[in-house]
Each structure stands twice: as structure tokens, then as C-alpha cells.
């Protein structure tokens, strides 16, 4: 085992864990990591607390709750919608590992790098739209356990464009309560 550090900056710990700085900051805010602010206002994370999380994540555990953090892929060409979904996921599940993409092509590339447990995608996007991406995802053996499609189109219009078998549909603007209910139900059942 490597020598444990006395403290980490959020950026240092994010690099070690392969997550975003925002994820580390959320873990601090949620009380999952012990931290303090320096006189200059910078956060420092307790080395022992960080090391416990590092070891838990490397061993496949999620840390204090001993659960593997859900991997979530969010695909949307609208930056505001992308940020909203990210904030909802982060608020409900601070340990979630989130990957973002701006269209179906980027979404498929991201799925080649990470195997998400949850996929949230818009339908109407440039390049490869959400329906085309979902058709490809449906052929994969390691499909996400929960797929949520969102759109300003009505559900019947989306279904006329292509079938949404095995996909939960939520209209935009996104109803946060319905979205979070889908996430929680899935995570309780896995």
C-alpha cells in the first residue's frame, strides 16, 4: 500500500478516483468525506477519510454504505437540460459516476468507454438522434439497466418515430419528482 497522504485537495482526490472535482465536493457536502477549509478558503480532505474511500472504490464497494456507485450516462444537446439532469442525479445520489454527451454519436462513444447502469437521453438531437442511439443500445449485451428517454415531443409522436420498448419516457420540461422516482425504484431493485 502506498504511503497515505495527510490531506488531498478536491482536484487531487478526483484524479486518483477518476471522478469529477464536483463529485468529490458533493461527497464532502454529504458528509462522506471529512474536510475543512484553509484560511485562504481552499478545501482540504482528510487523508484517512480519502484513503478509506479510495480503498472502498478500488475494491468495488461504494464506501460507507458499501454499495457500488451507479454509473449514469446523460445525453442531451441542450446544455441546460444536461445540467438539470446532472444536478438531479447528483442531489439524489452524491456518489453517482456521471458521464455526459451532447448527441447520440458522443453517447455511443461514451458507452464504449463506460458501461452505464442508467442512460438518460434526449430524443431530438443533431447527428445521431436519441432514437437511433437507443436502437443501437438495444442490440448490446451490456445494456443499461434503466433507460430514460426525454423529449419536448409528445409520447405518441416519439413512438411514431420509433418504438421505445423497455424505455421509460418522460416529457420535457422534466418532472423532477417522476424522474427521481424512476431512479430510486431502479436502484432499490438492483
List the helices and strands and how they pair.
Elements: E1 7-8, H1 10-17, H2 21-29, E2 35-37, E3 43-46, H3 47-58, E4 71-75, H4 79-92, E5 97-101, H5 104-113, E6 118-122, H6 130-138, E7 146-151, H7 155-161, E8 168-171, H8 176-189
Parallel strand pairs: 4-5, 4-6, 6-7, 7-8
Antiparallel strand pairs: 1-3, 2-3
Helix pairs in contact: 1-2, 5-6
General description of the model:
This protein is of the alpha/beta class. It contains 8 helices and 8 strands; from the N terminus they run βααββαβαβαβαβαβα.
The largest sheet is: 5 strands, parallel
Overall 3D form: elongated
Distance between the termini: 32 Å
Helix coverage percent: 40-55%
Oligomer: single chain
Total number of helical segments?
A: 8
